[in-house]
Amino acid sequence: MKTVLVTGGAGFIGCNFVKLMLAHHPSYRIINVDALTYAGNLENLKEITDKGRYVFIKADIRDKEKMDEIFKTYEITSVVNFAAESHVDRSIEEPEIFLLTNVIGTQVLLDVAKKHWKAHPNDKYCKTYKPGVKFLQVSTDEVYGALGETGLFVETMPLMPNSPYSASKASADMVVRAYHETFGMPVNITRCSNNYGPFQFPEKLIPLMINNCLEEKELPVYGDGMQVRDWLHVTDHCSAIDTVLHKGVDGEVYNIGGNNEKANIEIVKLIIKTLGKSEDLIKYVKDRPGHDKRYAIDNTKITTQLDWEPSYTFEQGMKETIEWYLNHPDWIEHIILGDYVKYYQKMYH
Ligand code: NAD
Ligand code: DAU
Fold first, then answer.
1. Which helix (H) or strand (E) holds 48?
2. Is residue 265, in this structure, part of any structural domain at all?
3. Is the confidence at residue 273, as pLDDT, over 80?
4. How sure is the predictor about 146, in pLDDT bands with cuts at 50, 70 and 90?
Protein backbone atom coordinates (compact mmCIF):
# COMPACT_ATOMS: atom_id res chain seq x y z
CA MET A 1 0.00 0.00 0.00
CA LYS A 2 1.23 3.51 -0.77
CA THR A 3 1.16 5.76 2.27
CA VAL A 4 1.47 9.45 1.47
CA LEU A 5 2.44 11.87 4.22
CA VAL A 6 0.79 15.20 3.41
CA THR A 7 2.02 18.05 5.59
CA GLY A 8 -0.09 21.20 5.98
CA GLY A 9 -3.17 19.27 4.86
CA ALA A 10 -5.51 21.42 6.99
CA GLY A 11 -4.61 24.54 5.00
CA PHE A 12 -6.05 25.79 1.74
CA ILE A 13 -4.20 23.78 -0.92
CA GLY A 14 -3.40 20.87 1.37
CA CYS A 15 -7.05 20.15 2.21
CA ASN A 16 -8.00 20.18 -1.46
CA PHE A 17 -5.06 17.85 -2.18
CA VAL A 18 -5.96 15.35 0.57
CA LYS A 19 -9.51 15.08 -0.81
CA LEU A 20 -8.30 14.75 -4.41
CA MET A 21 -5.86 11.98 -3.47
CA LEU A 22 -8.46 10.00 -1.51
CA ALA A 23 -10.82 10.24 -4.50
CA HIS A 24 -8.25 9.48 -7.23
CA HIS A 25 -6.30 6.70 -5.50
CA PRO A 26 -8.66 4.26 -3.73
CA SER A 27 -5.79 2.07 -2.50
CA TYR A 28 -3.70 4.87 -0.94
CA ARG A 29 -3.56 5.83 2.70
CA ILE A 30 -3.13 9.54 3.50
CA ILE A 31 -1.48 10.71 6.72
CA ASN A 32 -2.14 14.41 7.22
CA VAL A 33 0.28 16.16 9.61
CA ASP A 34 -0.59 19.74 10.45
CA ALA A 35 0.32 22.00 13.39
CA LEU A 36 -3.04 23.83 13.08
CA THR A 37 -1.64 27.36 13.02
CA TYR A 38 -4.07 30.22 12.34
CA ALA A 39 -4.22 28.91 8.72
CA GLY A 40 -4.97 25.29 9.56
CA ASN A 41 -8.64 24.45 9.93
CA LEU A 42 -10.13 21.01 10.55
CA GLU A 43 -13.45 22.24 9.17
CA ASN A 44 -11.75 22.08 5.75
CA LEU A 45 -11.61 18.29 6.09
CA LYS A 46 -14.90 17.44 7.73
CA GLU A 47 -16.47 16.00 4.56
CA ILE A 48 -13.91 13.15 4.59
CA THR A 49 -15.75 10.01 5.60
CA ASP A 50 -13.23 7.30 4.64
CA LYS A 51 -11.56 7.19 8.05
CA GLY A 52 -9.86 3.86 7.31
CA ARG A 53 -7.58 5.41 4.69
CA TYR A 54 -7.18 8.83 6.29
CA VAL A 55 -5.37 9.76 9.50
CA PHE A 56 -4.97 13.27 10.93
CA ILE A 57 -2.09 14.00 13.31
CA LYS A 58 -1.62 17.38 14.95
CA ALA A 59 2.14 17.92 14.92
CA ASP A 60 4.83 20.39 13.92
CA ILE A 61 7.08 19.39 11.03
CA ARG A 62 10.04 20.76 13.02
CA ASP A 63 9.49 18.08 15.70
CA LYS A 64 12.03 15.48 14.58
CA GLU A 65 11.10 12.82 17.13
CA LYS A 66 7.44 13.02 16.21
CA MET A 67 8.18 12.91 12.47
CA ASP A 68 10.41 9.87 13.07
CA GLU A 69 7.64 8.12 14.99
CA ILE A 70 5.15 8.86 12.18
CA PHE A 71 7.47 7.45 9.51
CA LYS A 72 8.00 4.32 11.61
CA THR A 73 4.35 3.77 12.54
CA TYR A 74 2.86 4.34 9.11
CA GLU A 75 5.68 3.22 6.79
CA ILE A 76 5.50 6.41 4.76
CA THR A 77 6.30 5.96 1.04
CA SER A 78 5.97 9.58 -0.20
CA VAL A 79 5.96 13.04 1.31
CA VAL A 80 4.13 16.02 -0.17
CA ASN A 81 5.28 19.02 1.84
CA PHE A 82 2.72 21.84 1.85
CA ALA A 83 3.27 22.89 5.49
CA ALA A 84 4.46 26.47 5.51
CA GLU A 85 3.85 30.02 6.54
CA SER A 86 2.37 31.21 3.25
CA HIS A 87 1.35 34.88 3.42
CA VAL A 88 3.74 37.55 2.09
CA ASP A 89 2.27 40.39 4.19
CA ARG A 90 2.76 38.39 7.41
CA SER A 91 6.37 37.65 6.40
CA ILE A 92 7.01 41.39 6.22
CA GLU A 93 5.69 41.80 9.79
CA GLU A 94 7.31 38.69 11.34
CA PRO A 95 9.94 37.01 9.15
CA GLU A 96 11.39 34.63 11.76
CA ILE A 97 8.64 32.03 11.82
CA PHE A 98 8.88 31.84 8.01
CA LEU A 99 12.52 30.78 8.23
CA LEU A 100 11.83 28.35 11.05
CA THR A 101 8.86 26.57 9.48
CA ASN A 102 9.66 26.82 5.80
CA VAL A 103 13.41 26.10 5.93
CA ILE A 104 14.10 24.16 9.13
CA GLY A 105 10.80 22.27 8.92
CA THR A 106 11.64 21.12 5.39
CA GLN A 107 15.15 20.06 6.43
CA VAL A 108 13.79 18.03 9.36
CA LEU A 109 11.38 16.19 7.06
CA LEU A 110 14.13 15.51 4.52
CA ASP A 111 16.40 14.11 7.22
CA VAL A 112 13.77 11.81 8.65
CA ALA A 113 12.75 10.63 5.18
CA LYS A 114 16.41 9.93 4.32
CA LYS A 115 16.82 7.83 7.45
CA HIS A 116 13.74 5.72 6.72
CA TRP A 117 14.10 5.43 2.95
CA LYS A 118 17.81 4.83 2.38
CA ALA A 119 18.76 1.22 1.67
CA HIS A 120 21.75 1.59 4.06
CA PRO A 121 20.99 4.58 6.31
CA ASN A 122 24.38 4.61 8.06
CA ASP A 123 26.42 4.55 4.86
CA LYS A 124 26.98 8.16 3.83
CA TYR A 125 27.94 7.04 0.30
CA CYS A 126 24.76 5.02 -0.22
CA LYS A 127 22.52 6.59 -2.84
CA THR A 128 20.12 3.66 -3.12
CA TYR A 129 16.61 4.18 -1.79
CA LYS A 130 13.63 1.90 -1.23
CA PRO A 131 11.69 1.52 -4.50
CA GLY A 132 8.96 4.07 -5.23
CA VAL A 133 9.76 6.60 -2.48
CA LYS A 134 9.58 10.31 -3.27
CA PHE A 135 9.83 13.68 -1.49
CA LEU A 136 7.79 16.36 -3.24
CA GLN A 137 8.40 19.95 -2.14
CA VAL A 138 5.53 22.30 -2.90
CA SER A 139 7.21 25.56 -3.81
CA THR A 140 6.13 28.75 -5.49
CA ASP A 141 6.81 30.90 -8.55
CA GLU A 142 7.74 33.73 -6.16
CA VAL A 143 11.22 32.19 -5.75
CA TYR A 144 12.12 33.54 -9.22
CA GLY A 145 11.50 37.15 -8.14
CA ALA A 146 9.58 39.59 -10.31
CA LEU A 147 9.18 39.98 -14.08
CA GLY A 148 8.93 43.18 -16.10
CA GLU A 149 6.27 43.76 -18.76
CA THR A 150 7.32 40.68 -20.75
CA GLY A 151 8.88 37.24 -20.26
CA LEU A 152 7.93 34.11 -18.33
CA PHE A 153 9.46 32.14 -15.45
CA VAL A 154 11.28 29.00 -16.62
CA GLU A 155 12.69 26.31 -14.35
CA THR A 156 16.32 27.09 -15.21
CA MET A 157 16.18 30.74 -14.11
CA PRO A 158 18.25 31.85 -11.12
CA LEU A 159 16.28 32.31 -7.89
CA MET A 160 15.85 35.99 -6.96
CA PRO A 161 13.30 36.09 -4.12
CA ASN A 162 12.23 39.51 -2.85
CA SER A 163 10.16 38.95 0.30
CA PRO A 164 11.06 37.09 3.50
CA TYR A 165 8.37 34.55 2.49
CA SER A 166 9.81 33.91 -0.97
CA ALA A 167 13.37 33.92 0.41
CA SER A 168 12.37 31.18 2.86
CA LYS A 169 10.74 29.13 0.08
CA ALA A 170 13.80 29.58 -2.16
CA SER A 171 16.04 28.47 0.72
CA ALA A 172 13.92 25.36 1.21
CA ASP A 173 14.22 24.60 -2.52
CA MET A 174 18.00 24.80 -2.20
CA VAL A 175 17.99 22.38 0.73
CA VAL A 176 15.78 19.92 -1.18
CA ARG A 177 18.13 20.16 -4.16
CA ALA A 178 21.12 19.53 -1.88
CA TYR A 179 19.53 16.33 -0.49
CA HIS A 180 19.17 15.10 -4.06
CA GLU A 181 22.70 16.05 -5.14
CA THR A 182 24.51 14.92 -1.98
CA PHE A 183 22.43 12.00 -0.76
CA GLY A 184 20.74 10.91 -3.99
CA MET A 185 17.29 11.37 -2.46
CA PRO A 186 14.43 11.03 -4.99
CA VAL A 187 12.87 14.51 -4.92
CA ASN A 188 10.79 16.85 -7.03
CA ILE A 189 10.11 20.53 -6.58
CA THR A 190 6.97 22.15 -7.98
CA ARG A 191 6.68 25.93 -8.42
CA CYS A 192 3.12 27.06 -8.86
CA SER A 193 1.53 30.43 -9.52
CA ASN A 194 -1.27 32.03 -7.45
CA ASN A 195 -4.05 29.64 -6.48
CA TYR A 196 -7.72 30.44 -5.89
CA GLY A 197 -10.70 28.28 -4.99
CA PRO A 198 -12.64 26.92 -2.00
CA PHE A 199 -11.23 27.00 1.56
CA GLN A 200 -8.71 29.83 0.95
CA PHE A 201 -8.11 31.88 4.09
CA PRO A 202 -9.48 35.43 3.68
CA GLU A 203 -6.09 37.11 4.10
CA LYS A 204 -5.31 36.41 0.41
CA LEU A 205 -6.54 38.72 -2.35
CA ILE A 206 -9.55 36.84 -3.77
CA PRO A 207 -11.28 35.60 -0.57
CA LEU A 208 -10.48 38.89 1.21
CA MET A 209 -12.17 40.89 -1.57
CA ILE A 210 -15.16 38.51 -1.69
CA ASN A 211 -15.62 38.71 2.06
CA ASN A 212 -15.25 42.50 2.20
CA CYS A 213 -17.70 42.91 -0.70
CA LEU A 214 -20.25 40.74 1.09
CA GLU A 215 -19.82 42.90 4.20
CA GLU A 216 -19.88 46.13 2.11
CA LYS A 217 -16.43 46.98 3.50
CA GLU A 218 -13.67 48.90 1.68
CA LEU A 219 -11.61 46.87 -0.80
CA PRO A 220 -7.93 47.66 -0.05
CA VAL A 221 -6.00 47.64 -3.35
CA TYR A 222 -2.23 47.98 -2.89
CA GLY A 223 -0.52 50.73 -4.93
CA ASP A 224 -2.07 51.23 -8.35
CA GLY A 225 -3.55 47.71 -8.53
CA MET A 226 -1.63 47.00 -11.74
CA GLN A 227 0.51 44.16 -10.37
CA VAL A 228 -0.01 40.99 -12.37
CA ARG A 229 -0.41 37.42 -11.10
CA ASP A 230 -0.97 34.18 -13.06
CA TRP A 231 -4.05 32.56 -11.47
CA LEU A 232 -4.70 28.81 -11.29
CA HIS A 233 -7.65 26.97 -9.74
CA VAL A 234 -6.53 24.99 -6.69
CA THR A 235 -7.92 21.72 -8.15
CA ASP A 236 -5.61 22.14 -11.15
CA HIS A 237 -2.63 22.74 -8.83
CA CYS A 238 -3.53 19.56 -6.92
CA SER A 239 -3.86 17.47 -10.10
CA ALA A 240 -0.46 18.79 -11.25
CA ILE A 241 1.14 17.72 -7.95
CA ASP A 242 -0.48 14.29 -8.28
CA THR A 243 1.01 14.07 -11.79
CA VAL A 244 4.52 15.06 -10.64
CA LEU A 245 4.31 12.64 -7.70
CA HIS A 246 3.70 9.75 -10.09
CA LYS A 247 5.50 10.79 -13.28
CA GLY A 248 8.09 13.38 -12.25
CA VAL A 249 11.71 12.54 -13.04
CA ASP A 250 13.85 12.40 -9.87
CA GLY A 251 15.64 15.65 -9.10
CA GLU A 252 13.56 17.74 -11.52
CA VAL A 253 11.76 21.02 -10.92
CA TYR A 254 8.35 21.60 -12.56
CA ASN A 255 6.63 24.96 -12.97
CA ILE A 256 2.82 24.88 -12.70
CA GLY A 257 0.65 27.65 -14.11
CA GLY A 258 -2.50 28.35 -16.04
CA ASN A 259 -1.42 30.91 -18.69
CA ASN A 260 -3.86 33.23 -17.03
CA GLU A 261 -2.36 36.62 -16.21
CA LYS A 262 -4.57 39.23 -14.59
CA ALA A 263 -3.91 42.60 -12.97
CA ASN A 264 -5.15 42.78 -9.37
CA ILE A 265 -7.61 45.55 -10.18
CA GLU A 266 -9.25 43.39 -12.89
CA ILE A 267 -9.87 40.66 -10.30
CA VAL A 268 -11.30 43.13 -7.79
CA LYS A 269 -13.64 44.58 -10.43
CA LEU A 270 -14.74 41.09 -11.51
CA ILE A 271 -15.67 40.21 -7.91
CA ILE A 272 -17.55 43.51 -7.48
CA LYS A 273 -19.50 42.93 -10.70
CA THR A 274 -20.33 39.28 -9.92
CA LEU A 275 -21.63 40.23 -6.47
CA GLY A 276 -23.55 43.24 -7.82
CA LYS A 277 -21.69 45.77 -5.65
CA SER A 278 -20.32 49.26 -6.37
CA GLU A 279 -16.79 50.12 -7.47
CA ASP A 280 -16.96 52.92 -4.87
CA LEU A 281 -15.90 50.24 -2.39
CA ILE A 282 -12.40 50.23 -3.93
CA LYS A 283 -9.80 51.99 -1.78
CA TYR A 284 -6.26 52.40 -3.10
CA VAL A 285 -3.94 51.99 -0.11
CA LYS A 286 -0.19 52.18 0.50
CA ASP A 287 1.73 49.63 -1.54
CA ARG A 288 3.21 46.42 -0.08
CA PRO A 289 6.96 46.95 0.56
CA GLY A 290 9.02 45.14 -2.08
CA HIS A 291 5.85 44.39 -4.04
CA ASP A 292 6.63 42.11 -7.02
CA LYS A 293 5.25 43.69 -10.20
CA ARG A 294 4.50 40.65 -12.29
CA TYR A 295 4.58 36.84 -12.13
CA ALA A 296 3.96 34.62 -15.16
CA ILE A 297 4.70 30.94 -15.62
CA ASP A 298 6.01 29.03 -18.60
CA ASN A 299 4.45 25.59 -18.02
CA THR A 300 5.85 23.95 -21.19
CA LYS A 301 7.88 21.39 -19.22
CA ILE A 302 5.00 19.88 -17.25
CA THR A 303 2.54 20.01 -20.17
CA THR A 304 4.89 18.44 -22.74
CA GLN A 305 6.90 16.04 -20.56
CA LEU A 306 4.25 14.90 -18.06
CA ASP A 307 1.10 15.50 -20.10
CA TRP A 308 -0.63 17.70 -17.53
CA GLU A 309 -3.13 20.43 -18.51
CA PRO A 310 -5.24 22.77 -16.38
CA SER A 311 -8.94 21.98 -16.65
CA TYR A 312 -10.58 25.18 -15.37
CA THR A 313 -11.12 28.36 -17.33
CA PHE A 314 -10.71 31.43 -15.11
CA GLU A 315 -14.32 32.45 -15.74
CA GLN A 316 -15.70 29.07 -14.61
CA GLY A 317 -13.26 28.82 -11.69
CA MET A 318 -14.10 32.29 -10.38
CA LYS A 319 -17.85 31.74 -10.79
CA GLU A 320 -17.67 28.51 -8.74
CA THR A 321 -15.33 30.07 -6.17
CA ILE A 322 -17.59 33.06 -5.54
CA GLU A 323 -20.59 30.71 -5.30
CA TRP A 324 -18.66 28.54 -2.81
CA TYR A 325 -18.05 31.52 -0.51
CA LEU A 326 -21.70 32.58 -0.84
CA ASN A 327 -22.79 29.06 0.10
CA HIS A 328 -20.44 28.73 3.08
CA PRO A 329 -21.16 31.72 5.34
CA ASP A 330 -20.49 29.59 8.45
CA TRP A 331 -17.00 28.71 7.29
CA ILE A 332 -16.09 32.39 6.86
CA GLU A 333 -17.87 33.38 10.06
CA HIS A 334 -15.88 30.88 12.14
CA ILE A 335 -12.64 32.35 10.80
CA ILE A 336 -13.71 35.92 11.30
CA LEU A 337 -14.71 35.19 14.89
CA GLY A 338 -11.11 34.13 15.66
CA ASP A 339 -7.94 36.24 15.55
CA TYR A 340 -8.82 37.49 12.08
CA VAL A 341 -10.31 40.75 13.33
CA LYS A 342 -7.09 41.59 15.19
CA TYR A 343 -5.04 40.69 12.11
CA TYR A 344 -7.22 42.84 9.86
CA GLN A 345 -7.01 45.84 12.15
CA LYS A 346 -3.23 45.57 12.40
CA MET A 347 -2.67 45.28 8.66
CA TYR A 348 -5.28 47.64 7.21
CA HIS A 349 -5.70 50.50 9.71
P1 NAD B 1 -1.96 27.84 4.06
O2 NAD B 1 -1.32 28.95 4.82
O3 NAD B 1 -3.42 27.91 3.71
O4 NAD B 1 -1.74 26.45 4.82
C5 NAD B 1 -0.54 26.12 5.44
C6 NAD B 1 -0.80 24.93 6.36
O7 NAD B 1 0.45 24.55 6.97
C8 NAD B 1 -1.76 25.25 7.51
O9 NAD B 1 -2.71 24.23 7.64
C10 NAD B 1 -0.87 25.31 8.74
O11 NAD B 1 -1.52 24.93 9.95
C12 NAD B 1 0.23 24.33 8.36
N13 NAD B 1 1.49 24.58 9.06
C14 NAD B 1 2.13 25.77 9.22
N15 NAD B 1 3.27 25.59 9.95
C16 NAD B 1 3.35 24.28 10.22
C17 NAD B 1 4.29 23.47 10.91
N18 NAD B 1 5.39 24.01 11.47
N19 NAD B 1 4.07 22.14 11.01
C20 NAD B 1 2.97 21.58 10.46
N21 NAD B 1 2.04 22.29 9.80
C22 NAD B 1 2.23 23.62 9.68
O23 NAD B 1 -1.08 27.69 2.74
P24 NAD B 1 -1.51 27.30 1.25
O25 NAD B 1 -1.92 28.52 0.53
O26 NAD B 1 -2.40 26.13 1.30
O27 NAD B 1 -0.08 26.88 0.67
C28 NAD B 1 0.40 25.55 0.86
C29 NAD B 1 1.78 25.44 0.23
O30 NAD B 1 1.73 25.78 -1.14
C31 NAD B 1 2.82 26.38 0.87
O32 NAD B 1 4.03 25.68 0.97
C33 NAD B 1 2.92 27.53 -0.13
O34 NAD B 1 4.21 28.09 -0.10
C35 NAD B 1 2.67 26.81 -1.44
N36 NAD B 1 2.07 27.61 -2.52
C37 NAD B 1 0.94 28.34 -2.28
C38 NAD B 1 0.35 29.05 -3.35
C39 NAD B 1 -0.91 29.85 -3.15
O40 NAD B 1 -1.33 30.56 -4.07
N41 NAD B 1 -1.59 29.77 -2.02
C42 NAD B 1 0.93 29.01 -4.62
C43 NAD B 1 2.10 28.26 -4.81
C44 NAD B 1 2.65 27.55 -3.76
O1 DAU C 1 2.59 33.22 -6.59
C2 DAU C 1 2.33 32.24 -5.63
C3 DAU C 1 2.09 32.89 -4.29
O4 DAU C 1 0.80 33.51 -4.37
C5 DAU C 1 2.14 31.91 -3.13
O6 DAU C 1 3.45 31.40 -3.01
C7 DAU C 1 1.74 32.60 -1.81
O8 DAU C 1 1.68 31.64 -0.76
C9 DAU C 1 0.38 33.23 -2.01
O10 DAU C 1 0.04 33.94 -0.83
C11 DAU C 1 0.37 34.17 -3.21
O12 DAU C 1 1.20 35.34 -2.96
P13 DAU C 1 0.73 36.82 -3.39
O14 DAU C 1 1.44 37.80 -2.57
O15 DAU C 1 0.77 36.97 -4.89
O16 DAU C 1 -0.85 36.69 -3.00
P17 DAU C 1 -1.83 37.69 -2.23
O18 DAU C 1 -3.19 37.08 -2.31
O19 DAU C 1 -1.33 38.09 -0.90
O20 DAU C 1 -1.80 38.98 -3.16
C21 DAU C 1 -2.11 38.90 -4.54
C22 DAU C 1 -1.92 40.28 -5.12
O23 DAU C 1 -2.92 41.16 -4.60
C24 DAU C 1 -0.58 40.93 -4.75
O25 DAU C 1 -0.11 41.69 -5.85
C26 DAU C 1 -0.92 41.86 -3.59
C27 DAU C 1 -2.36 42.29 -3.90
N28 DAU C 1 -3.21 42.56 -2.71
C29 DAU C 1 -3.32 41.60 -1.76
C30 DAU C 1 -4.09 41.80 -0.63
C31 DAU C 1 -4.19 40.74 0.43
C32 DAU C 1 -3.92 43.75 -2.61
O33 DAU C 1 -3.84 44.62 -3.51
N34 DAU C 1 -4.68 43.95 -1.50
C35 DAU C 1 -4.80 43.04 -0.50
O36 DAU C 1 -5.50 43.30 0.51
1. none
2. no
3. yes
4. very high
The model carries a pTM of 0.98
Residue 130 lies inside a defined structural domain of this protein: yes
In CATH, what number is assigned to the domain containing residue 188? 3.40.50.720
Q: Residue 139's domain spans which residues?
A: 3-199+231-259+294-313
Q: How far apart are the two ends of the chain, measured CA to CA in Å?
A: 52
Does 321 score more than 90 pLDDT? yes
Q: 106: pLDDT confidence band, cut at 50, 70 and 90?
A: very high
Domain count, the chain: 1
Q: How far is the CA of 142 from the centre of ligand 1 (A)?
A: 14
Catalytic (active site) residue 141: yes
Q: What is the pLDDT of residues 208-217, one digit of tens each?
A: 999 999 999 9
Q: Is residue 10 part of a domain?
A: yes
Cα–Cα distance for residue pair 5/112, rounded to 1 Å: 12
Residue pair 43/73 in contact by the 8 Å Cβ criterion? no
Average pLDDT of the residues of the chain: 97
Output phi, psi for 261, to 5 deg: -85, 135
Ligand 1 pocket by Cβ (under 6 Å): 7-8, 10-14, 34-37, 39-40, 60-62, 82-84, 86, 101, 105, 138, 140, 169, 192, 194-195, 201
Atom of ligand 1 nearest to the CA of 61: 19
Spatial CA neighbour of 243 closest among 20, 1, 5, 16: 20
Task: Please indicate, yes or no, if residue 343 is contained in any of the structural domains.
Answer: no
Whether 60 is catalytic is: no
User: How far is ligand 1, taken at its centre, from the CA of residue 2, in Å?
Assistant: 23
The pick from 152, 208, 224, 229 for probing ligand 2's pocket by mutation, whose C-beta has the most ligand atoms within 8 angstroms, reads: 229
164-208 tens-digit pLDDT: 999 999 999 999 999 999 999 999 999 999 999 999 999 999 999
